[in-house]
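User: what does the whole thing look like in 3D?
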Amino acid sequence: MTIRLPRLSLPQLCAVALATLLLAACSSTPAPRGTGDLGLVIERASGQVAVVETTGRSRLATVQGLGDLSHAHVTYSRDGRYGYVFGRDGGLTKVDLLLGRIDRRVVQAGNSIGGSISQDGRLVVAQNYDPGGIRVFDADTLEPLSEVPAEYAPGFRSKVVGLADLPGQRFAYALFEAGEIWVTDLSDPRQPRTQRYPAGRQPYDALVTPDGRHFIAGLFGEDGLALLDLWHPEQGVRKILSGYGRGEQPLPVYKMPHLRGWAVAGDYAWLPAIGRHEVLVVDTRDWREVARVPVHSQPVFVMARPDGRQVWVNFAFPDNGKLQVIDTESRSVVETLEPGRAVLHMEFTPRGEAVWVSARDDDKVVVYDTETRRPLAELPAAKPSGIFFTSRAARTGF
Amino acid sequence: MNKLPPLALHVAVLLCVAFASAYASASVAGGGEPRLERQRELVRLVRQDCGSCHGLSLAGGLGPALLPAAVAEKPVELLVGTIMDGRPGTAMPGWSRFVSAPEAEWVVRQLIAGFPQDGGGQ
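Assistant: Here's the predicted 3D structure for the full assembly of 520 residues, as structure tokens:
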């Protein structure tokens, strides 16, 4: 049997061919999706990130070639589509979460610790250990625009820690060796203007409160934290929680705690005590200590659930196999969990019904229901560390 | 495994004897090297946990680089002492809770030679 094809003119043939091509293209394009439930999980030893979604709790893609991610941080474009991944080796990689691939990548320093994005989403700023300072990039193209070397005395450059975006295209950060807080105004991104404030001995990390008003640097070299009111920077830095160790010998610190705006729950900030098995609670209205909660070991991340009703805590080596949950009303530990070996990080889903926890030495991410504290899912991941959801895009200080 | 020169072997054996009483559960075998299983643990400890401050690749972080070029110029005893007792006034804690002095010395020698990757150990 033979099939008879209709006779077509050349223009008709072209039209048929074009229609066929378009149909084929359409069928291979996935349906459009939003970015609100997406995130990245760092797989630190293999220099790759997993693109994940928190609705079905699955991995959508794996993006490779991001360099040394032994310490990595992610900040998000305002539309949540791009994650800017700052690697230890100075790599700055713009990852497209929707397409599951690298959009752009530059190596911008020798040793980097993280970065942040401006209020208007146009500038990405990296904070570096070597050469110490911050560098400013166009968020679209990653074109370098300017830098502020952390040269605190002639010939001396400091490592930069605790970079936070502030309202008004400003960024605050702390200088480990210099013991200072710097605030840089990038209203003109090619002409940074910087103010310096003495802060205290060896600031190791910092946070800005969710309203962008108070910048707080944790101090390794002394008992206490440095607070700068950014509405009144002319008043300078004030010490809070001074002498929280009350002269006791601090324990050896095998891992530095991390500070971010997640510390704030309602009117209180929940802060890791360095060298102590305690979480410190401070009233953000007058910055006085109101309580200290004894915990399993030295806290690393002390994170409030988005509604502020719970605070979740993980711990430094060698006690990093446990997680504890503090009830913020009774200010006591209500749950101790053992998600796996070497719990490095956790991240709440945008409204906090679940928390994702990375267990590095068990090569998995465990998802818990925060209300029942039962595991909901486990995702295999290669030496996972940081977990970063796109809900950070809308938060000051992330 | 590289063969140690006789003098180094002698010193290593002496060190072992010296520390045997202090570290009853010492996992360092007679040849002055930790057992293979323990070597793997030490490699993981250095890469992952020392790596929190010194970097997974040991190229430095809040703590200084521990690459061969950086450590080779320093006396071995100083480096062993730093691992065991920490460096007061800095962020470096002592690790004597987790490693014995001969193990610390093994770590230092590996750092000088170029540190093994995690998951290897041999």
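In plain terms: The CA atoms of residues 265 and 308 of chain A lie 4 Å apart. Chain A has a mean pLDDT of 93.
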